[in-house]
Design a protein that fits this description.
Blueprint lengths: L4 E3 L8 E9 L9 E15 L2 E15 L6 E15 L4 E3 H11 L29 H13 L1 H5 L3
Antiparallel strand pairs: 1-6, 2-3, 3-4, 4-5
Amino acid sequence: MDKLILSFNDFKKSKKIVVQNEKFNFECDQDDIVKGADLFFSFEANKYDDIINVVGQIKGSMTFECSRCLTSFEQNVDMGFECSWTKEEFEFDILKEIKETVFLNIPAQPLCKKDCKGLCQYCGNNKNIKDCFCEQNRIDEFVAEKWSKIKKLKI
């Protein structure tokens, strides 16, 4: 489903339209932050004179790649949305609003957990699985090299 257009003509018989648990196809590219999504939306649209108000919910799960350790992880999604339009606009694409809501709620730097240690910049080891001592060894080497001449001084 690419579009879900609601118009004022849809409200001739009833002043309310309810949609429950419809699948939302969220397109993911290989290079995207989002690696997969299993999302469903529900909404209630009400007509008030010259205004239609839509209140809805998006639920499901999304798969992300951690920005620190590059592992894939799944995160539950539960977000609300609300939109309105007037008779001058006549029709409205609800899926466009749902897409915008999902995009605005995607984290800029998703983390598999708050205290993710990431990858070692020297050996590439995932520090969440096994600690390495590359960084400490490099600091020790730097300090030893920097102070080597001072250590040779005899007082």
